[in-house]
Specification:
The protein is mainly α. 69% of the residues lie in helices and 0% in strands. It contains four helices and no strands.
């Protein structure tokens, strides 16, 4: 029921920023994107992986596997940063 109310209020141009369910869900989504696709955090994980390998905590196979995965994540995060995924584009002009 609340979702329908929020949708109807948005269509009428009435928004209550603190109480809007859609607005709240968008904020949660934006925060999740920033945490998940943060290039600095991924670079730190790559450094950590390298240190674990150098100190002998992980073997060469694990290191290569983890490094390849982290480099792929970094590539996606940098691409997401370039595209600015947190900006919502609405073809109808409503925000």
């Amino acid at each position: 029921m609340f979702i329908i109310d929020d949708i109807l209020l948005k269509q009428l141009g009435i928004t209550i920023p603190g109480l809007s369910l859609i607005w709240t869900l968008e904020q949660i989504r934006d925060f999740a994107y920033k945490e998940l696709y943060n290039p600095e955090k991924i670079k730190n994980k790559i450094k950590e992986n390298r240190l674990l390998f150098e100190f002998g905590e992980v073997n060469a196979g694990e290191y290569e596997k983890n490094n390849a995965k982290l480099l792929q994540e970094l590539k996606l995060a940098e691409r997401g940063t370039e595209m600015n995924l947190t900006v919502r584009s609405d073809i109808l002009g409503a925000r």
